[in-house]
């Protein structure tokens, strides 16, 4: 696929440029000079370049799937507890959460994701297990799972996450005990997957909510809405710049992955660990920018 090769070419100068997520010690140990990208289309074609089959820590990308699971299980009730506006603030900000009385701005900043994980755990009795089931089924890989070393690393160093969860609890916006929610949350973020596996697992968002076996998971309206929240809130406090350059519903993670949905066409997933100033993978952003420039896989 020509646009994929051009994306890889455009990203090359950015690979290794930037910082690793040092606040999670085991992510700081990853080789930053890696790059992989996959484009999976709704009609079953998969194109890959570079380190497309190397597993990495999906981190915040997991938040798309936990939100989808909650919405699929009980509809729109989660929006009573979480808003859907861009935050314009760092993804782990305590100030905004306190100022807004414990109601997170959106489900993709850490506070919002903790509420979603809390709800999923209350609904299923095992938030991370429910997530792993979905990812295994849709990626076709039974060995997909959470990396306990990464989870422990974040559990021990994630003081802000603990603070956010306690603040949410103080406002009555958690159902489960704080330590249970945190354990599930770090485990879901520590999910280890390749670009290929992630792209396949996310295809339901490009297929109006339909899973790989043809069964309905989300309604078309729910899938549209999750894509909309990804476009406005999925790439930290630079979602505007990201939309300007890439123009696709996307979710990035501090492990260096970015997932982008092209409704009715497919999914692109790119990974390169070094993060630019926006907190998203620098090479990943350059690759997606080029991909939407040199292909007609766009929504605009
Ligand atoms: N587990 C990470 C955290 O809570 C996820 C952040 C991210 O990928 O944006 O800080």
Kindly identify the CATH topology. Answer: Beta-lactamase
Q: Give the quaternary arrangement of the chains.
A: single chain
Q: Domains counted in the coordinates: how many? A: 1
Distance between the termini: 21 Å
Identify the bound ligands. Answer: glutamic acid
Number of helices: 12
Biggest β-sheet strands, sense, barrel: 5 strands, antiparallel
Give the neighbour order of strands across the main sheet: 2-1-8-7-6
Overall body shape: globular
Query: How large, in whole angstroms, is the Cα Rg?
Result: 17 Å
User: Any idea of the CATH class?
Assistant: Alpha Beta
Helix content: 40-55%
Q: H/E element string?
A: HEEEHHHHEHHHEHHHEEEH
Tell me how many strands there are: 8
Beta-strand percentage? 5-15%
Mean pLDDT: 96
CATH superfamily annotation? DD-peptidase/beta-lactamase superfamily
The CATH architecture can be given as 3-Layer(aba) Sandwich
Low-confidence stretches are: none
Query: Pairing-aware structural class of the strands and helices?
Result: alpha+beta
Secondary structure blueprint with pairings:
Layout: H1 2-11, E1 36-41, E2 46-50, E3 56-57, H2 62-74, H3 95-99, H4 110-124, H5 127-139, E4 145-146, H6 148-157, H7 159-170, H8 178-189, E5 191-193, H9 195-201, H10 220-233, H11 239-245, E6 250-252, E7 257-262, E8 266-271, H12 282-294
Antiparallel strand pairs: 1-2, 1-8, 3-5, 4-5, 6-7, 7-8
Bound molecules: glutamic acid.
EC number: 3.5.1.2
Subunit structure: Homotetramer.
Family: Belongs to the glutaminase family.
